[in-house]
Amino acid sequence: MATKTKRRVNLRVLPKRLERAQAEAEKVVNRGVKATLELLPNGTRKAVRDLSAQIQEATTELRSRGRKAVSRVEKRGSVLAGRLERTVARLEKRRAKVLTTAEREGSRLLRVLQRGAERALRGVAETLDVASARQVAEIGKRLAVIERKLSGRVTRKRAA
């Protein structure tokens, strides 16, 4: 029994083969059209040729219109894309402005709140008679001086 080998299709050759097949099919169709036209009487043959010419002209015109329509649509698309890009750029600028304004207002409100809290706490601290940081620092300096004096007396007493 003979083994069957699978035949691989070379895809690079496929478009060329299709072009050749299409060309051959067009030749066969043209021959068939000519043979059919020769069988028709002269008046009918002329009418068929006229109709074929009209169809060909209509096809050419429709292709031309199609190309023009596509070019118009592409132009409109590019115009709309430009408008969209400009709108996006404007929105980006607006967003940046709004963001900076919001940050500025937020920091301003934060400063106002901090000042209010400081005033309120300062009033509470004064009411409670709590020492300020400056007062605590002064007391620390006084204590240091007193400790030096005391430590000097203690060493004199030991020496004597």
Helix-strand layout with pairing:
Layout: H1 14-39, H2 42-128, H3 133-159
Please explain how this structure is put together:
By secondary structure, the chain is mainly alpha-helical. The protein folds into 2 domains: 14-129; 131-160. 88% of the residues lie in helices and 0% in strands. It has 3 helices and no strands. The protein has helices at residues 14-39, 42-128, 133-159. It is elongated and about 150 Å long. The N and C termini lie far apart (130 Å). The model has no long low-confidence stretch (mean pLDDT 88).
User: What is the beta-strand fraction?
Assistant: under 5%
Q: Into how many domains do the coordinates divide?
A: 2
Instruction: Kindly name the structural category.
Output: mainly alpha
Q: How many separate helices?
A: 3
Helix content: over 70%
Rg from Cα: 50 Å
- Average pLDDT confidence is 88
Let me know the number of strands.
0
Subunit organisation of the chains: single chain
| Low-confidence sequence ranges | none
Largest sheet geometry: none
The best one-word shape is elongated
**First-last Cα distance:** 130 Å
SSE string: HHH
Features:
3 helices, mainly alpha, 2 domains, single chain
Please give a quick description of this structure.
The chain has 160 residues and is an all-alpha fold. It has helices at residues 14-39, 42-128, 133-159.
